[in-house]
Amino acid sequence: MISAKKEIPKFRYIALEAEFCKFLTGVMDIFKEYGELKDHYNIIQMLHVLKIEEWRDIVPFAYYLHPLNDSINTTRKTLLKMEDEGPLLRKYIIEQNETLMKQTQDMVKMDLKAQWLVGDELKQDQFKFFYETTKIIYDSAL
Questions:
Q1: Where are the domains of the chain?
Q2: For the chain: N or C, fewer Cβ within 10 A?
Q3: What is the pTM (predicted TM-score) of this model?
Q4: CA 31, 91, 107: angle at the middle one, nearest 5?
Q5: In this predicted model, what pLDDT tens digit does every residue of 12-69 receive, in sequence order?
């Protein structure tokens, strides 16, 4: 439907996002239980932060959310590549997949930083205020 430029019902986006969150949480649970993932993660909250309106136009948000968005896309592409390769070319023991483990750890670290800075509306307002205030000082002749 996307490639055909047709309007996609909102419930489909919600359902696909819920399935993605469930699947990625399952993979990350395996990494936390048997692998090297030690940090806290919440996929639903991570995607919620990326739904901030016009975050690409707000300079301090873009600085922290672009790397997060890129790392999510990289991890997603790796998972899709694993699916395309089929069961004979991917590792059956998921916690031994070092590439996916590293990408997941990087994604979680970027998410923790993003959650700390723009995780809710109060933090977003405070971060924007701090940036705008320091920008005035930075741009001044001082």
A1: 10-139
A2: C
A3: 0.81
A4: 40
A5: 889 989 999 999 999 899 889 988 888 999 999 999 999 998 899 999 999 999 999 9
